[in-house]
Amino acid sequence: MKRIVILGAGESGCGAAILAKEKGFDVFVSDMGIIKEPYRALLEQNGIAWEDGQHTESRILNADEVIKSPGIPLTAPLIVKLQQQGTPIISEIEFAARYTSAKMICITGSNGKTTTTSLIYDILRRAGLNVGLAGNIGASLALQVAHEEHDYYVIELSSFQLDNMYSFRANIAILLNITPDHLDRYNYEFQNYVNAKFRITQNQTKDDAFIYWSGDPVIDREIRKMSLGATLYPFGKEGNAAYIRGNDLVVEAAEPLKMPYAELALEGKHNQLNSMAASIAAQVLNIKNDVIRESLKQFAGVEHRLQYVATVRGVRYINDSKATNVNSCWYALEAMTTPTVLILGGKDKGNDYSEIDDLVREKCHTLIFMGLHNEKLREHFGSFGLNIIDTDNLHDAVQGAYNAAREGDTVLLSPCCASFDLFTSYEDRGRQFMAAVRQL
User: Fold this and answer.
1) How far is it, in rounded angstroms, from Cα 238 to Cα 245?
2) Which of 235, 255, 388, 394 has the most CB atoms at less than 10 Å from its CB?
3) Phi and psi dihedrals of 55, rounded to 5?
4) CATH number of the domain that 46 lies in?
C-alpha cells in the first residue's frame, strides 16, 4: 500500500488526508503546531493517524509521496531531507486534481486574487453551473473532490501553492499582476517569485485560455520570452479581449458586452481590471452576457478588502486588512477620495514602500504605524512631514486614528504587511479592527 504523508493539518492538509484515505492510501498527518480541534476531530472521525507539536522523521521519511502545506518553505530542514532522498513533494491542489475531470478556472497574481475568484464564482453560480470554490478561499479542493464532486472549480492560487504543482493543468488560467511580494520566501530574488506565478500556465494547450493584464510590465516581459500553449486573452488596453472605452467596460472574448463602468458594484480602477478578467473567463465558458452583467452590478465584494466598517463623528472607517503587500495598499490609496489617515505595518516581507510615496504625500495627513517592529516604516516615511503615530497594538492605532481624523476624512487600515506579528491572520486583524471601530 502506497504511503502518503501530509505535512500541515489545516484546511488543505485535512482535506488531502481524507481524500487519500478514501483512495486507499496509508495516510499519516504531521503538524509542528497544535492541530485545531475541528481538524483533529475530522482526522479522528476518518481513522487517520496524526501527530502535532513535532515532526517524527521516522514516520515521515518513509513516505512514498508527501503533500506539503503551502505555508512550509522549501528550505525547511525536513523538506530538504525529503528532497535529498528523492521523495516527491506536491501540493494538495496537485493531489486532488488527479481524481476529478472538472474544469479548472485558476486565478493568481500579487493582488486581486480573492476578489476576482469570488466574482467568477458568483457569475458561474448565477448561471446555474455546478461549481465549487477552492484554493485560498472556500473548502479545500481535496475535500470537495472526496465528498461533493463539481463540474467546475474556481481556484485561488498563491505562489506557494504553485511551487509544488507539476502535472496540474488549468483550463482557464488568470494572471492579474506581478509586483514584489513574499520575497523573503524567494531568496529575495524577484525573478524566482515571477517564475512561481507563471507556473499557472504550465501544461496548458491551445484548447485552454490564458487571461492576463496586458498593462503589467513584468507579465509583458515574460510573455515575450516564453512560448505559451494556451489561447491568449489579454485585457486592459483597447483591442484586447476586455478594456475601457470612454465610460464603458467592453468585453469581446465572445459576443461583445458593453456596460457603463459606473454600474459596477466594485469601485476603483483595480476592480475594473478584476471585472475584465472575470468577464472574459465567463465568456470563454459561454455564459450569457445578461448573467455576467447582473453579477457585475450586484456582487457584494470580499470581506477585508476595502470593506466599509462605520462612520464615526463624520469619519469613514475602511477595513483593507487583506492588503498584505505594498502594491495592494497602492490600489487602496488610489481609490481614496477624501483626506486619509493610513494605518499600516506588521510583518515586513522585504517591502519597498517607495511605490506608495506619491499617493501617501497626495492623500494622507497622518500615518499610524502598527507593528512590533516599525523601524523601517519610520526610516522611510519619517521625512515626509506628516503626522506620525507609532503604536504596537491595534487599540492604540484605532484610538490614534480617532484623535487624528477630522470630519470628512477616511481612516484606512491597509497594512502593506503580513499580520503574523500581532495577529493570527489578516482576517483576525480585520475583525479586530472592525470591533475596535464599532466601540468608538
Assistant:
1) 7
2) 235
3) -120, 110
4) 3.40.50.720
Domain count, the chain: 3
Q: What domain range is 26 assigned to?
A: 3-89
Rounded CA-CA distance 65/109 in Å is: 28
Q: Does 77 share its domain with 102?
A: no
pLDDT digits (tens, 9 = 90+) for 126-175: 999 999 999 988 889 999 999 988 999 999 999 889 989 999 999 999 99
Please give the grid coordinates belonging to residue 28: 499519516
Grid cell at residue 427: 482576517
**263, 329 contact by CB (below 8 A):** no
CB 321 within 8 A of CB 419: yes
What's the pTM? 0.80
Interatomic CA distance for residues 164 and 79, integer angstroms: 12
CB 113 within 8 A of CB 176: yes
Is 80 exceeded by the pLDDT of residue 419?
A: yes
Query: According to the model, what pLDDT value does residue 386 have?
Result: 96
Residues 208 and 250 in one domain: yes
Residue 93: which of 186, 10, 155, 171 has the closest Cα?
Answer: 155
